[in-house]
Amino acid sequence: MIEFQIASLEELQTFANRLAAILPTNVTIGLVGTLGAGKTSLTQAIARAIGIDSADVTSPTFTLLQSHQGTRAADSQPIKLHHLDAYRVTDDDEFIELGVEELFDEDNAWTVVEWADRVRTCLPDETLWLKLTLTSDSETRKIAAWTDDAGLTAMIGSMNR
């Protein structure tokens, strides 16, 4: 597990920019954290990192899925950002019925799932997990990152240098 300390929205954006620069063209990101931990804020920062207006990126708690088109800064290639929220999903079957398995396999697409721990068994084995935790000062966030993908682990580790 690799940990990052994020003390401000500016640092969150820097984290997202660095993350967007190293992510492969197809990845699922599972966001975990309590209400208000910053899951949607991180998704908005990732969106900004690929040129999507963050005002268009809201928590899809009721719509369950929003998709946006962006551009990777690293290679100027188009990248789609799928943003899902599993908070209101009652079980794995309901989540699968959304057609999420197709999203996980889509080329040139990142799929970000808020409340991903609620549908853990439905996500790909190589999911990049990001757990956001508010510290005692309620301003600083800790982001713990882990994945079963060794190559992605090495890339994430390089962000901490």
UniProtKB/TrEMBL annotation:
Q: Does the keyword Magnesium apply?
A: yes
Entry's Gene Ontology cellular component terms: cytoplasm
Supply the alphabetized keyword list: ATP-binding, Cytoplasm, Magnesium, Metal-binding, Nucleotide-binding, tRNA processing
Gene Ontology biological process terms in this record: tRNA threonylcarbamoyladenosine modification
Q: List localization entries.
A: Cytoplasm
Give the domain of life.
Bacteria
Does the record's keyword annotation contain Hydrolase?
no
Output the InterPro entries linked to this UniProt entry: P-loop_NTPase, T6A_TsaE
Molecular function (GO) terms for this protein are: ATP binding; metal ion binding
Write out the similarity annotation: Belongs to the TsaE family.
Query: What name does the UniProt record give this protein?
Result: tRNA threonylcarbamoyladenosine biosynthesis protein TsaE
Q: Which organism is it from?
A: Rubripirellula reticaptiva
- Which gene is annotated as encoding this protein in its UniProt record? tsaE
